[in-house]
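Exercise: predict the structure of this protein bound to pyridoxal-5'-phosphate.
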Amino acid sequence: MKINLISDTVTKPSPGMLDAMMSAKVGDDVFKADPSVNALEEKAAQLFNKEAALFFPSGTMANQTAIKLHTNPGDQLICDKYAHVYNYEGGGVSFNSGVSCKLVDGDRGMITAEQVEAAINPPDFYHSPLTSLVCIENTTNKGGGACWDFEELKRIKTVCEKHSLGYHLDGARLWNALVAKGESTTQYGDLFDTISICLSKGLGCPVGSVLVGSEEEINKALRIRKIFGGGMRQSGFLAAAASYALEHQIERLSEDHAKATEIGVVLNDLPFIKKVEPIETNIIIFEIEEEAMSAESFVDKLNQHEIQIIGMGQGKLRIVTHMDYTDEMHQKFLDILRKL
Ligand SMILES: *Cc1c(COP(=O)(O)O)cnc(C)c1O
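Solution:
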């Protein structure tokens, strides 16, 4: 039994999802004539109480499009030093938008309103880049699946309004935060200008992300997506998978969270584990006591049992639970961990 805990992106479509894909009505989405894509976009906009939505082939493209539409070349955005848009999007912020990132030293990928305000360059000081956007990530990826305090997000919104800054949420794993904290899509939609959400992470779709925003922003985003090469044709097959996931595969995320917590308990009991970061959702980040065992040999030992996990650099390791990680796999993994 192979157990892949590298990411929640390794899942295959469930039988119900495959059925939904097989029976999808499709058309050419570049002509806005794919009924399944149109239905998904309408549903996503409605969920977040936004005017419009746009389907993307990746979360990276959805984020990069949002950054492009909120900024001009030479501008600067504010984000945490762990932000996906800064660390894991291939330098796209500078390549696609000619924008730099002002990195804030936050806690597990989360920053405060005071830190945001202090990071803004005075707009009349023309020597500095013009600050035009704040990017937030919920849950935080490099921060170990941490969930924001919604009150802090509201305080940051006040700062954005005071300084006329755009407010974008990288919600690749927003569903995990919503389920973990009992929050709603509309409360996020009402707060942020734009939100990108992934369907290919915990929701189990093979491909796809959605960007939500105002009619005007999404019209601009449509042009930018075209420029980035993200206009797709009969993408309704993918949108049908997404609509299926939104209906059937959100509530179950709590199972992934419960399993992650249980893995954390076992890890914490192992003598050679130095530290397990707080576990709030489906991501576990931990460190090995290097005198006892190297991170590499820990990964190798698991590999010998056909269990895959991934290194995060700087001696940190990561485990991510997901819908294809079954109860049976979970019991086997815990047993193997206890015996290591
Ligand atoms: C996965 C992820 C994305 C999008 O990545 P893609 O590989 O392009 O789907 C964006 N932000 C965060 C925080 C992510 O974890």
